[in-house]
Write a structure and sequence with these properties.
- InterPro entries: DnaJ_domain, J_dom_sf, KTSC_dom.
- There is one protein chain.
- With 171 residues, the protein is an alpha+beta fold.
- The chain folds into 2 domains: 89 residues, Helix Hairpins; 82 residues, no CATH class.
- The protein contains 6 helices and 5 strands, in the order ααααββββααβ.
- The protein has a 5-stranded antiparallel sheet with strand order 1-2-3-4-5.
- α2 packs antiparallel against α3 and α5 packs antiparallel against α6.
- It is globular, with a radius of gyration of 17 Å.
- The relative contact order is 0.11.
């Protein structure tokens, strides 16, 4: 007879299912599942289409699942998890509510967001420092999302080429 899942196990399984996973044991596996889904369902790819509302819902669910599973993987690596360490997980988004947060491959950059109406790129670094880069073309953002290292790409192709400002620190 199969044992009933605890509430925590059921929640973990539900988040895995959103990303098409049965389980996840590494950040690399989590990223491999997350990245193609967020590319497929990013609302900017559905702008002006009937599927836009569905894309917003799917992208939100994908990001929520990613954040939950990433936090769960980080907890497994920490011997003691405190309220303070849990609060470091990025889930507050960016100062612009129109921007969807996209988590990137592990580096000094946690996540990026892009407003395709204003062409503002937001970059959240470890420590939750957020910078806004102005007038960044969508092609640069697409290249950033496909780069092997988001941190290196931002350093080489964004930092000195676009006007930037530090945003309010997100905790």
């Amino acid at each position: 007879m199969a044992r009933a899942l605890s509430r925590a196990d059921a929640e973990f399984a539900a988040h895995c299912a959103v990303l098409g996973l049965r389980t996840v044991r590494t950040v690399e596996a989590l990223n491999a599942a997350y990245r193609p889904l967020i590319r497929q369902w990013h609302p900017d790819r559905h702008h002006g289409q009937a599927s836009h509302a569905v894309a917003v819902d799917r992208a939100t669910a994908i990001n929520d699942a990613y954040a939950f599973l990433l936090e769960a993987l980080e907890r497994e690596c920490e011997p003691v998890v405190t309220a303070r360490s849990r609060s470091r997980v990025a889930r507050d988004g960016f100062p612009d509510p129109a921007v969807l947060e996209i988590f990137v491959k592990p580096s000094n950059v946690i996540s990026v967001g892009y407003n395709n109406n204003t062409f503002d790129l937001f970059v959240k670094y470890i420590g939750h420092r957020v910078y806004r880069y102005r007038a960044v073309p969508a092609s640069v953002v697409e290249a950033l999302l496909n780069a092997p290292s988001a941190s290196a790409y931002v350093s080489e192709h964004v930092d000195r080429q676009y006007e930037s400002e530090a945003c309010k620190r997100i905790t």
